[in-house]
Structure formats: C-alpha cells, structure tokens
Amino acid sequence: MNLKLIKWALLGGAATAGIILSSLPTTPQLARCPEIGRLPGIVLAMIVTTTIIHTLVTSIQADLVHSKRVSAWYSVSSSRRLLLIAVGALLTAATMFLDILLWAWVYRFVGAIHGLEASLYFSGITFTTVGYGDITLAKCWQLLSVGEAVNGVLMAGWSTALLIFLVQKMMTFHLNMAESSTSSD
C-alpha cells in the first residue's frame, strides 16, 4: 500500500475518532478525583496523540509541496501558490481544532466537565492559553488543564513553523522562477 494513502487514512481515522469520541456520553462515575499518578498519564497520552496527528499533517503537507504533480500545478500562477498556502493554513487550523476536540472529549470522558459546549469552550481557551477563568476545573483535575496548555503551546509553535515552511517554499519557488526568467532574457 502506498505510504501517502496510509498517511491520509490515519489522518482521516484520527479525525473520525475525534468526532465519534466527542459524541459519547460522559461517565459520571469517573468525576470523582483521580489518584495523582493518573493525571500525568492522561496528559502524556494526549501529547503523544496530538504529536502523531501533527506529524501526519506535517508529512502530508511536505509531501504535497514536494510532489512533482503539485509543483507542476502551482508553477502555473501565483494565485495557485496562494491557494496552496491557504489550503495549508486551513488544514493546520483543522488539525488544531481536532486537538481541541480531543481534549474536550477527555474532559467529558473523565467527568471533569459535563456538556459538550462547556468542554469545547474550556478546551479551546486552555489549548490556546487564553484562559478566561469563567469555567474552572475542580482542584483535583487542574493538572489536566496545565498539560493541555503546554500541549497547545507546543502544537501552536509546530503549526506556525509548518506554515512558515509552506510560505517560504512558495516564495523561494516564486523567486527562482523570476530569477530564471530574468537570466533567460
């Protein structure tokens, strides 16, 4: 099986799992405070999961930008290169939203937050480190929010670097095209 198809299948599977898991009911029996050793395990599992997702997205975007077919497509016009940058930005934003969705599912699953809207909101403001403070976790669950904030900072930095790579690749391509047309004159 083609490696690119495997990457797309894994990414699609992760997105589908996130959507399915977010619709599962909470388990109120887990709402009581966990042992302190359980929280770092949850945080580590989430960091590993989001790292795998971002690795797949990074690999897909790098493969697309370096693909001969895609290079031939975006070499036609600057508007196509801008479109490729926009698609990359949207894919990156979707990936970060998937991370937020997965964290929201964790909060609901362990019973730390009840309700989809509240868990998505809390996850979003924690992942982006906005942290309004209007929704807070019980004291025994607060380490989860610290782990999510660290995870969000790491994934935001990674995503920024990925977008810079994409823009730089398109700008380098444009400059090389301009240079080759100038030298041929």
Q: How would you characterize this protein structure?
A:
The protein is mainly α. The chain has one domain (36-179). 78% of the residues lie in helices and 0% in strands. It is built from six helices and no strands. The chain has helices at residues 3-22, 38-66, 68-74, 78-110, 116-127, 142-184. Helix 1 crosses helix 2 (38-66) and helix 1 crosses helix 4 (78-110). The longest helix is centred in the C-terminal third of the chain and has 43 residues, at 142-184. The chain is elongated and about 70 Å long. Mean pLDDT is 83; it is low at 26-30.
Specify the number of helices. 6
Helix content estimate: over 70%
**Main β-sheet description:** none
**How many domains in all?**
1
What's the topology here?
Layout lengths: L2 H20 L15 H29 L1 H7 L3 H33 L5 H12 L14 H43 L1
What is the gist of this entry?
This protein is mainly alpha-helical. It has helices at 3-22, 38-66, 68-74, 78-110, 116-127, 142-184.
Could you list some keywords that capture this structure?
185 residues; mainly alpha; 6 helices; elongated
